[in-house]
Fold:
Amino acid sequence: MTIRRRRRREEAFRALCWVAVYLPLALLALLLAHALVEGLPRLGSAFVSDFPSASPERAGILPAIAGSLYVLSLAGVIAVPLGVGAAIYLEEYAPARWSHLVEMNLAQLAGLPSVLYGLLGLGVFVHVMGMGTTAISGALTLAMLVLPLVITTTREALRDVPGASREAALALGATRWETVRQVVLPVAWPRITTGVVQALARALGETAPLIMVGALAYVSFLPDGMSSPYTVLPVQIFHWVTRDGFVPNAAAGVLVLLSATLALNVLAVLLRQRLERVEAERQEVLP
Amino acid sequence: MGDATDVAARRTLEPISSPVAAETPEPEPRARHLDREEVLTASKMSATGLTAWFDNLRVLSEIEMEIPRDGVTAVIGPSGCGKSTFIRILNRMFEMKPGARMEGQVTLDGEDIYASDIDPVQLRRRVGMVFQRPNPFPAMSLRDNVLAGLRLTGRLRKAKNADSPAAIERLVEHALESAALWDEVSDRLDAPGRTLSSGQQQRLCIARAIAMEPEVLLMDEPCSALDPIATARIEDLIHALKARYTIVIVTHNIQQAARVSDRTGFFLQGELVEYGPTDRLFTSPRDPRTEDYVTGKFG
Structure:
């Protein structure tokens, strides 16, 4: 092969990589620009503090914001203790073989399409357990959805705690639980928190499972308890998109949802950075 | 020739023994018997028929070893000879590793520590341990590191009335004094443990173990991650501590065993090849394998 031909191939490959990076970025930018053009005029303090209405100019997104906050917090309250507890068991107590088996299944679960969690929620929480299409059904469904993620990231965080610290605590006569609570968790917490926030950021955008378990299209009140009907941001957006004249509202909703997701992810990044600084300090001193 | 050194060694170990012994060298079998006698007096821990495996790999075979209450017992041998496994069996840390399995008997003050009614957690408070690499708790201050054992096991909270802040400070000071660290850190007890040099960190770990008031202190190659000056300080510390604690030290540094210990056991491929007073073992080893090891022919 001549050197010129090899050069040409090199150029072609570089161009291909360039396209692979900038084409998706351009599409994203287009999407964002579209949402901004359509939604920005509609976005204002009234939009985020108003209830839905039959006329697009007056329809606001407050119940969806409140619903997302409420359902997401509930899901967090359910998924975090369960997920962290499961991870502690798998990492600190369970026999290695068993925990490996569970790990493989967790990876499968984390990859399932979210609509399947919606079906599970509809079957188990809404019908069998008779909770109906309420906030708690939605929260439980989201909790199931994020659980594999919470377990996996918590396990990684626990695994990063040096074995020497565990050994030191056990050799001092601490029980497993005393070791986990006072030595392992304090070191692992920042990373666990990061993982949980990222998992919740993912749940914030989930639409399909919540449509399945009955998030509403039109809610004119704020959720006032676990058995309250509710809606969430993505479901509200979904319904607006399909309604005549409400597209600007949908676009403005998209902007609200994007900012909320962005805020959560920034929070996760900040937590991680702080953690890595502490980590670096620690490694500087150790031989 | 070997017998003469034997007796000399015995004399330095046991100052009470009569000078007559030095004048009348004893025959070989008798000396062996004497070693055993010396070792058996006031035994603190003992292993009988101790065999251990990781899965199907045998790491210790039929170990018989008495650890006397007084003085320092060194365990030497090349990497992989089972010496670390041996001391981890003494505080039941061995069983925390997956695939660990053992047979035989280990006693502390004559009591079987592997009996079903013995709680390993309780045992580890009596048999403290210092590890190869200094492992202070990274997220805790110096003070909290010293108190870690008491906090972890809930002892500080339970005895509320006794634990006035002043009493706690005294406890911290005492433990750090005992570990020869107080003078260097008394003005920065709130600094994180990781700000110390590695030698200081290791002494902090010793202070942390001492704060639990153990009866036996196990040291698993405590100086292998340290420079010579830090090593010398730890060895001085071992000399100071042996009056209060039964000390078992694992080392692959033969000179260190010679400097700090009163008795030495030589492990090779999971077997206790030879065990006796340190001076005797180093000057006139009875087993050719011991001789090859202490003279540096392998290791």
Notes: DSSP finds 14 helices and ten strands in chain B.
